[in-house]
Amino acid sequence: MLRWLTAGESHGPALTAILEGLPAGVRTSSKEVGAELARRRLGYGRGARMKFEQDEISFVGGLRHGITQGGPVAIQVGNSEWPKWDRVMSADPVDAEELAGIARNAPLTRPRPGHADLVGMQKYGFDDARPVLERASARETAARVALGSVAKAFLAQTLDAVVLSHVVRIGTVAVPLGAPVPGRGDSEAVDASPVRCFDPQIATAMIAEVDAAKDAGDTLGGVVEVVVHGLPPGLGSHVHWDRRLDARLAAALMGIQAIKGVEVGDGFALAATPGSKAHDEIEASQDGPRRRSGRSGGTEGGMSTGEVLRVRAAMKPISTVPRALDTVDVATGEAAKAIAQRSDACAVPAAGVVAEAMVALVLADAVLEKFGGDSVAETARNIAGYRAALDERGLGWS
Question: DSSP state, 53?
Answer without folding.
Answer: -
